[in-house]
Amino acid sequence: MIFLDSWVFIEYFSENNNRQAVELIENPGDTRVISSVVIAEVKYVIAKKFGISKASEVINVMYSLPNIRILPVTKEIAEFAAELRLKYYNRDRQISYIDTLNLATAIAVECNILYTGDPDFNGINEIAIKNIASSKFGKDKNLPKWKEPTDR
After folding, report:
1. In the chain, pLDDT over 90 holds for what percent of residues?
2. Which stretches of the chain are assigned E, i.e. beta strand?
3. Measuring CA to CA, which of 11, 38, 40, 85 is 20 to 30 A from 48?
4. How far apart are CA 22 and CA 16, in angstroms?
5. Is residue 67, in this structure, part of any structural domain at all?
6. Which CATH number do you get for residue 47?
7. How many domains does the chain have?
């Protein structure tokens, strides 16, 4: 199994044409896992930039993807996420609660790799991290130009 961070979906729906994001989402193969908080983060980021209607469209597309397994955050994952944040949060790496919830989920369900574009995951030891960033979204939190979700 592989875990897809919110970044992968931001890249997938953007006009960046991030080949890796498209392949990760559209190519059948290993089960793709996301945490329910990925839904929250993607919806929030898109709604903030493009409005709630666009965000709802994107979330509906995410729900319809056949090879994506959405996992809830359990109390055990929540506690593990707190431990991971205590371990990795510092002045140079301000890893968010959502990122540690995603990280904890990926580790708890024994994913082989976590795909992201967020530099806060660099140097994590518990799971292999693959950074697929092709935009500056993680550095300055500006979304790239947007592609209509129905284009896919």
Report:
1. 66
2. 2-4, 32-35, 68-71, 113-116, 128-131
3. 85
4. 10
5. yes
6. 3.40.50.1010
7. 1
Cβ proximity of 61 and 149 under 8 Å: yes
Tokens of 107: 């580790």
**Beta strands 68-71; 113-116: pairing state:** unpaired
Give the predicted TM-score (pTM) of the model.
0.85
Structure tokens, 95: 């890893």
Domain boundaries, position 66: 2-133
Do the domain assignments include residue 34?
yes
Per residue in 74-94, pLDDT (tens digit) is 999 999 999 999 999 998 889
If you search the block for the tokens 């979906």, which residue do you land on? Answer: 9
CA distances (Å), origin 104, targets 47, 77, 83, 110, 123: 26, 6, 9, 10, 15
